[in-house]
Amino acid sequence: MDIGPLSNLKNLNQERIVLIVAVLIFVTASVALPGFLSAPNLIAIVRSISVLGILALGMSVVIIGRGIDLSMVAIMAMSVAWYLQLLGNGVPDHTALLLVLAGVLAIGLLNGFLVAYADVPAIFVTLASGSFVFGYVRSQLISSDAVPVPEGHWVALLGGLRFASIPVEVYLFALLSGAMFLFLRYTKWGRYVYYAGDNPIAARNIGIPVRPMLVLRYVLAALISFVAGLLTAASLHSINTRVVNSNLLYDIVLVAVIGGIGLSGGKGGVRNVLVGAALIGIMLNAMTIIDIPLLYQNLIKSTILLFAIIVDGVLNPRDEQTAQQGDI
Amino acid sequence: MTFREQLQAWRYNLVPDHIIGEILTKRWTDNAIPFIALVIVVASFGSAIPGFFKLYSLQESTRQLGEFSLVVTGVTVVMLGGGIDLAVGSIFALSAFSAVSMVFIFETPVWLAFAASMATGATFGAINGYLIGFLRLRAFITTLVTFIIGRALYDILVVKFGSKIQLSMVSSDTWDFIGDGTVLGLSVPVLSAILLAIVTHIALTRSRPGWHVLAVGGSRRSAHNAGIRVRLTVFMTYVFSGLCAAAAGFLIATRLSGAGPGTGHGLEILALTAAVVGGNSLGGGRGSVVKGMMGAVIVLVMTNGLIRLGYGTGTNQMVLGILLAVAVTIDIRWLKNRHKVLNEVYVAPVYLRMGEAPSAVPGSGTPYSLNSHLSSAAHIGLGEVEGPEDVILDRDDHLYCGTRHGEIVRFFAPDYTRSEVFAHIGGFPLGLAFDRDGNLITCVGAMGLYQIAPDRTVTRLSAETRRSLTSIVDDARLRDPNDLDIAPDGKVYFTDSTKRYDAHEWALDSIENRATGRLLVYDPADGSTKTLLDGYRYTNGVTMAHDNKSLFFCESWACRIHRYWLEGPKAGTAECVIRDMPGYPDNINRASDGTYWMAWLGMRTPSFDLSLRHPAMRKRMARRLPQDDWLFPNINTGGVVKFNDNGEILQTMGDLTGLAHPMVTSMREHKGELFIGGILNNRIGRFTVDGADKTWTSNDAYWGAAK
Q1: Which among A204, A226, B271, B658 has most CB atoms closer than 10 A?
Q2: In this complex, is the C-beta atom of B306 within 8 Å of any C-beta atom belonging to chain A?
Q3: Cα–Cα distance measured from residue A60 to residue A265, given in angstroms and rounded to the nearest whole number
Q4: pTM for this one?
Q5: CB contact under 8 A, B146 and A306
Q6: What ipTM was predicted for this assembly?
Q7: Which CATH number fits the domain that encloses residue B58?
Q8: Which residues on neighbouring strands pair with residue B654, listed in sequence order?
């Protein structure tokens, strides 16, 4: 009996499928698309997914803990916009940075508090807080949609930084991935994220501080969003707050979910983010080279996200026993 | 009475505390917060914006409101079914585009454009419904994704065909009428929104599919176990929502005669916020169309008002974010803590100063003085019956009693060692009586008045009376039917002990001591039930006087016996014949010598009498202490008391050992013996009465000798 292929099939989890698909697209694109395999293009791919990947790291920590953070893009864009506006208004750099960090922390804490202590479903909390952050900063704190980085500021210099002709955000993405990997894999609190995501009630019963940890995750996601925002501003020399209304948020969810981080929590890790980000990066780059208009790219991406969610729903069906009221 | 006590009496007897608790049990209290918010929003924006209430301005904003309400109604139904629909934003835009393109590009009639819109909505709704209902995906994330897909599709279509639509020369009167015209001063969107709201409301509250939606939203698993097709129901809610959004999309298409990139932008979060702000619960089961409409008005007035007041970009999102977060948090907290609040405030004790009672101490020389005669009673069904509140014997001397399992048990004459379940009713059968034809009529606690024919068929005679005008909680339902007796004309006189508590919560009723007991009559001729008297402290036993011109009934927590006149000059009125007894009276039945037997379920104690003068203390007690620690009537000692038509006490028998009959709730004389029941007892007692008529049975006394 030849059971080899069969057992191989069983080992095909989502992460491996996605990896194989990514490699296939990569190979096909390398052969079919001129200029795809060139070094500048490859660097462009890695660079384009760096910010997305960093955001996806933050999102995945929240998702592993059975939550979701829809306010990440708003925090990313608005915190940096506020920061740059403060700089533009002549506020000293450290004061501005401290103010913005305090604001980012406050939103992270608020998200976490409402989810953990008021038992409000994460999806509503973060939808509302995202809308609030955008609206508040846009209407009260900044004066136009796009805020430029002041000349000669370190954020602008950061954008131009290269090591071995690779932009700095790639290193930062690698660094953050490594740190997140170590946190999730080797620290006590990192392991707790999985327990709390897998079965929050059981985790609480064995004495894990589930609620403070929930708060921690949302704070972490908010801080990561801020870092991603700084990187965006660094490479573009300005931040455009209209990005909040774009599909970036869904791209983040797409990276996390397509990499195999189940929305029901407790599954996945940094590797899944990397695989998901690779697939999306290669695909977006290929689509751009083929010259598919942005509108169609959106359609394609969202359709892929739908399929990813369907697959996720079939692979990780919702557990009615541990599902929360209003967890929709 | 001291001044302090007088103050207490006024405070607790005149201030209707109990109303707060009763109002909180009503589902419409959920509407209070959104309604207040609605009033505040409309009032403040109405006064802040000049011309807000002008006809033209209202016309325009109500058109928009009509369209929005349609969408919100759809979202509300989805939420009631336990889901959420964010895709309405793109369904709205896509169906608007379908309508516009049908009319302006393909130059079809308007009805076909409408059909195209609805088909778009139904298709998208069906996709959502299939994914969420049948594949059981997460509603929020799934509809979010279908929303982006729809939006991407819409953006592509608008870019491709937008200019074609704008250049079209087609014009249609029907189209323009729907977009601009009014019927009776109301625009088409408003009319259709009202119509849809009414139809949906009726469907949700009064039709099977609507109940299924609410059941699925309330508890998926229970709905599944009840045989409801959960997945199909969920599927249908999304299709409905898709259709609603499509109708709204069609209307905006007629109003704007075009579809631009901004159509339906941000609608999904607006609709979601409206549904939640109106007070529809996340997770389903609780909510209504009306709540959705209130939320729609609040959200739309607020966002439009902010724009018209000239606040800058982003203000709307900020306000929406706050609104959504606050509404969701309130909803979650309220749902979690509502029953706690209710428990805190529901028990609202009143002040009562009981009269000084003659002593019941053994050897005190009063007619009430207790003894241990009943301890010598023989037992029937020891350990077999649980809770024989009332006992009765038929013409063949078989013995019947109710049990707490909802059964009527029959013990066979002559030795009553064999028994069978005569009938199963459910509830807790309390008072029993035989009518002229040998039907057993019983008051079933928490259910109503039931009849068991000799062939054991169970029929419900009455479960409700007319609702009183001032009631908050519907008092038509009989909460605690307790005892009954039957007049020669077949009318059944019975008591309903309390309107405030269920039968098993009688201890709480005694602590509250509010007078809500009733005397009612059921007329078998026309099947009607009427309330004769209201406002007694736990009406309990009832018996017809020997001459059938009046009846006696007791008021347990006030330790009084009243006589209600059926004929004669005092017909229709009640008078108190025995007051201030030392025990709490229960059932009353006829005795063979022309007098009456009355059961005492317990004895008054100085401590509980004192607590009745301290309502605040009783309220604190019910709120803070576990039930085991409550002070309530002493039910460890009861007895049987004989009294005559004049209200004179002739004899008292008890069981001071507390072993056989500590608490007595009924006694029935039959051929010289007294059969004794107790609602918390595990046996029926059989006690030979000295000097009683050995041939007397109640059946003969009521209905004449057997034929």
Answers
A1: B271
A2: no
A3: 9
A4: 0.76
A5: yes
A6: 0.85
A7: 1.10.3470
A8: B639
